[in-house]
Structures are given as C-alpha cells and as structure tokens.
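Hi there,

I know you've been waiting on this one. I reran it after we fixed the sequence typo, so this is the corrected version. Both the input and the resulting structure follow.
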Amino acid sequence: MSTTFTIDTATSRANPVAAPMKRLTVPAVRQRKAALTKGQGEPLVMLTAYTVRMAQLMDPHCDLLLVGDSLGQVIYGLPSTVPVTLAMMAAHGAAVVRGSYHAVVVIDMPFGSYEASPQQAFESAAYLLKETGAAAVKLEGGVAMAPTVAFLSERGIPVMGHVGLTPQAVNALGGYGARGRSQEEADKIIGDARAVAAAGAFAVVIEGVVETIAIAITDSIDVPTIGIGASARCDGQVLVAEDMLGLFERVPRFVKRYADMAGFVGDSVRAYAAEVRERSFPTADQVYAPRD
C-alpha cells in the first residue's frame, strides 16, 4: 500500500485491520464497461469516505471509494464545496488510503485547483496523488475541461469526469436542482460527457440529471458511468455515505436511507448521559482494581 503516512499498529484504534486484499486498478474499472455492455458482470459500487474507520468498513463492499469534496459540508459544516482546499483533500485522502486495501481510491480536485490551466491541474493532481497514495482524481466539467482531462491522462494521471449537476458551480447554476430539463441543457450535458470520455477519462459521474440523459450517456460512451440522482441504467452508483446511513435529516431526493445512524447515535449518547448523571457508569467492569 503506497502512502506517505503510516500507522503505529501497536497503539492505533484503526487496528485490527482487515486482511489485505488485492486492490482493484483503474484499468480494471474501465474494462468493466465492456462486460456491462454485454449484460455481463456487476455494476460498480462507489461510496464517499473521509476517514480511516469508514474506509475500513466500506472497503470490502465497494469497487471505488471517493474522497469527495462533499467533506466540506459533511465534515466541516461549510455551506458548499467551494471553500474546500487541497490540504483538506490530501489529509482525508491519505486517511482513506490507509484504511483501504481493495477499492480504487479517487480524490476530488477542489474548486480553484484545476480550472486555470492544464498545468495548474497537473500540479494539483500530482500533489494529491503523492501525498495520499490514491489512484486517481476527479474533476468537474465537460467540454471546457476536456483538454485538461487529456493533459492529465497523457501524463499518467487517471481522471474521473463529473457532468450534470456540478456542485462546485453552484453559484453559476443558481442551486442544486436537477439539470437537463430543457433540450438545450440536455444536449449540452450529453456533449460534456462524450467530450471528457473521448479526452481519456476512465469513468464519468453523472449527477442530478433527468433520467433519459443518464441513459443516453451510458449508451453512447465507452467508459463506465456512475450515477448519483441519475438512473439505475448507469454502470454504477455513488452516494455520500453519511446520507445513505441516515446521519443527516435533510438529504437530496435521490438518496435512499439504509439506516438511521443519527437516531442510533442520539439514543446511545442519551443512555450514556443518563448513566453518568445517576452515577451508574462506570461500573466495576470499567475501573481498575488495586493489584494484590
């Protein structure tokens, strides 16, 4: 496992870890498209991860782990992804790499770290991959970013594209509503996806679009599509893990809650607080007796 950080296995709560597995590769992910097109193989499973422990828990079940810039809202309580920095992404990316052995780890390029020029994008992406040991980066944008995708790909940096609802452009889009309701916008999104795929992206995330757009893109590009608020016909799916685990009350309509972790945590803390206040915790099982 390649990373610039190590864990003290004698003391860290991150251990014991799962037995190492052979990590998937970017080419293996890209090649999944051919099998899926023939009706063979399984769709790609992707979730966000920001910490070692969450990565450990999700890694055996996922093909890809995305260190999303959504950490700005999920971890830091920021109003959008726009304020997220390269340093934030590097710190959390390294943690996820340390906590995983199986999934391809992809790191979001934060707003302002790649738009100015392909050279800026290369420097930012190289920094993220060196600091974390991740396998790939993800960037938002379509036709305008295709030359940057090609520039990175030609220099050995795997790139995942992201079209449709692009959260970093929330100020320009005017909100987080579904995209592609007009024919003009639908045509643009499809063109964006085709452009980044042709430029060398190994997969493309399609977010928050009218379903027919996601299907049209999936049927027309030769790399996997990963949907989020798109279609079950995509070649894979991704969600923010904290949303699907039920840690937040307000989530996008495309999220399915698979658990009520917020309720579980609240109940557990309530029980702990009650025991502390009535002095029933700690008990003899949780304190140290004198040695004989």
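Quick highlight: Confidence is low (pLDDT under 50) at residues 1-6.

Best,
R. S.
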